[in-house]
Design a protein that fits this description.
Shape of chain A: globular
Low-confidence stretches of chain A: none
Mean pLDDT of chain B: 93
Oligomer: heterodimer
Largest interface: A-B, 30 and 27 residues
Number of helices of chain B: 0
Structural class of chain A: mainly beta
Distance between the termini of chain A: 33 Å
Strand content of chain B: over 45%
Radius of gyration of chain A: 13 Å
Helix content of chain A: under 10%
Largest sheet of chain B: 6 strands, mixed
Order of helices and strands of chain A: EEEEEEEEEEE
Amino acid sequence: GAGVSQSPRYKVAKRGQDVALRCDPISGHVSLFWYQQALGQGPEFLTYFQNEAQLDKSGLPSDRFFAERPEGSVSTLKIQRTQQEDSAVYLCASSSPGLDYEQYFGPGTRLTVT
Amino acid sequence: AQKITQTQPGMFVQEKEAVTLDCTYDTSDPSYGLFWYKQPSSGEMIFLIYQGSYDQQNATEGRYSLNFQKARKSANLVISASQLGDSAMYFCAMREGPGTSYGKLTFGQGTILTVHP
């Protein structure tokens, strides 16, 4: 596709359930980022991949959050035992190294934990 | 300390007028990049404009220009000839480190811009 896609667009989970959020970056983009955006706030960095290598996971808020990109393209963000504070929009972005000003964002997945 | 500060929670502008959205930043890294993104109600982050710390001239992209004042650590976005479709949330963001490093962004809190007809 032409842009970054994310699925599902909306997810409602009961507290304690596990969820998996998918990101399809722009074809050929080596760098992939996950951000979390709480309501009315700016996005906050979660984790970064260069190809399949997770080079920075300093923003993951707890060990319930796990991300992978096994083949260097599609990435999945998994949240185990969801809590209400996990409710947010999860944004994925991709770019080419050295051209990071062309960081393209997907539409996001809005997660609501009830 | 906040790395990116946007002090205007909301701004109003008349259609066809110009508006300035404020952004100040804090970094000790000599190499950095500054970004502005637009986020309409649909939620997607749309890249508007980029300024590198070593760029001598202010960046411009169509109706968008970035008023970069390095000594004051400010990077204000100027939108000229506002249109109704400009109504959205606007975020200022910073990447610390050179452009060859990976582009982890730090965002401000955002400014909601409303354009009146």
